[in-house]
Amino acid sequence: QHGFSREYLYGLLSQAKRKEWTIEYMNREKPTVTPKPGGWTRYRAKFLDERHISAGVNFWANHGAALERASQQYGVSPEHILGIMGVETIYGANLGKDRIVDALATLAFDYPRRADYFESELESLLIMARQEGMDPSKPVGSFAGAMGLGQFMPSSFLKYAVDFDGDGRKNLWDPDDAVGSIAHYFAEFGWRPGEPVVSPAEVAGSQVEGLKSGFDTRYSLSELASYGVRPTGSFPAKEVSLLKLSTTQGDDYYIGYPNFYVITRYNHSTYYAMAVHQLGQTIKKRYKG
């Protein structure tokens, strides 16, 4: 389909190693227990620790010019680019150890439930390697095939990766290219420069408990107000989401704005997007002093 010879494909894929652990991990039975309160408290603690924060401050100090340029070009705030990199790889400390071709071939051929998706990603890897003059057996990343400081899948590389340092290559292991590519990703999904991401909600009464919550909910502010929910602050959004975070002290409620939804295009999870946001804010506060 893309002009790869049968011999080339056979040669490459015959050398791909089946990752037994990956199949076992993907097929694991998830326990069907009622989640304990405090899920957000536990999740947040994994990412808002000293290691993530100080590494983010150091990254900003070392790559501030690229972050500023990305912010100017794409309108995305530096702290949210940093939040993604911190949660994904701790700024390159956890890049993964699996060859991408092994990970994707294993899941494409031995994980029927999502074989089509991983087969498509394997195809994207080959196209990416050809475009970049790269040996497709060389890139290393996560057990599911994500790579670089921002953990892009190959299809995301093809759509959103940019050569931000001007060396003629898109290299997601290079800090500048990773910064530009994450900013470009957010911009393509509709990041709104200068607009807020979330605001804490003030909740009166218990009517809120009857409302659906999550990053994909849609409410008008007047609708939420009728249930006793109001944002702290006065940003005039047409549509917002209601976010409920389970802490060890009870439930915290937030109003999510369109930029919060954009962060969830990276990973479809309320907790993930909030961790990205709060990590970024914490790094900014410490870096700016």
**Beta-strand proportion:** 5-15%
Shape: globular
Alpha-beta content class? alpha+beta
At the first level of CATH, what is the class of the domain at 17-26 and 94-189? Mainly Alpha
> What fraction, in percent, of the residue positions are helical?
40-55%
Give the SSE string: HHHHHEHHEHHEHEEEHH
What is the name of the CATH topology of the domain at 17-26 and 94-189?
Answer: Helicase, Ruva Protein, domain 3
Radius of gyration: 21 Å
Helix tally?
12
Low-confidence residue ranges: none
The named CATH superfamily of the domain at 17-26 and 94-189: Bacterial muramidase
Number of strands: 6
CATH architecture tag of the domain at 17-26 and 94-189: Orthogonal Bundle
How are the strands of the biggest sheet laid out side by side?
Answer: 4-3-6-5
Determine the mean pLDDT.
Answer: 96
Largest sheet, in brief, is: 4 strands, antiparallel
Oligomer: single chain
Separation of termini? 54 Å
